[in-house]
Amino acid sequence: MQVVSRFRLFNFHLFSTFPQSTNLPYSLPKIPFSQNSYPKNPHFSIHAFTSKTFKSSATTSESAASILAKKVLFMAPGVEPEDITEDMILPGSNIVVGPYAGDSKIKEVEFVKSSNKPKDCPKDEKPEFAMLGRSNVGKSSLINALCKKKEVALTSKKPGKTQLINHFLVNKSWYIVDLPGYGFANASEAARMDWSSFTKGYFLNRDTLVSVLLLIDASVPPQKIDLDCANWLGRNKIPITFVFTKCDKMKGGKAKRPDENIRDFQELIRQNYQHPPAWIMTSSVSGLGRDELLLHMSQLRNYWNNE
Predict the structure, then answer these.
(1) What's the pTM?
(2) pLDDT digit string, tens, across residues 70-100
(3) b/e sequence 74-90, b meaning 16+ C-beta within 10 Å
(4) How many domains is the chain partitioned into structurally?
């Protein structure tokens, strides 16, 4: 598949308003980061929308579904806003399921190789999803949960364990790619520069990349480094799905719940995205969102294969 088709997939869903840039995430313009510096959107909800919600937003010139689709929903390929029904929205997400959704079961997983340069990655033209996130976000745990195997990806209590681009072949037809985590504070400056260089090269030159699954820790407030990474991907027209991890963790005291942190993160992202990227809540412990994420990946993959 040519890279132009990947950009078509990006443009079909996200319509980013970012200017073109090749800067790394860490040098992007500052984003207002005060917890109270962004407006609340009365139409925003992290829950699936009900038919009652559709009706309450209706106008004489535009259907309620169309209004909601433009404000908060991630439109799947082949779906028109006026055709959306409640059961088409995946629970715990803003993702609409469309006609490209298909068999999402993982039957077998095989580790293929580790690469320290993008040019060394597999060259068999199979579509792939890149897992990216801050160190200790639960990336390896999510990969193991998706595959229903405990040791597909190495898990460790020590952040920064993944140091290479790791390709796992799923059902002999597509790849999950485990990328090094970013933001590992104890890494040397040289190691962080090396990570930035080769990961940037992977994103900009990997024609078989269907989408980046950007993992965000929902148990903590929005982190600037995650916002910077999302903005850099947007500027470079890299398709993205926000995968919120650790949604089962409920902290005591005055700490916000995962759903509140997700809402805050989305409000900040909406300052730079004309239309909302896909997002979904997950938990590697409880299995929340596992099947829904795989179904979402199946529709993106099938659309990629058929374009």
Answers:
(1) 0.78
(2) 568 998 889 988 889 989 999 999 999 999 9
(3) bbbbebebeebeeebbb
(4) 1
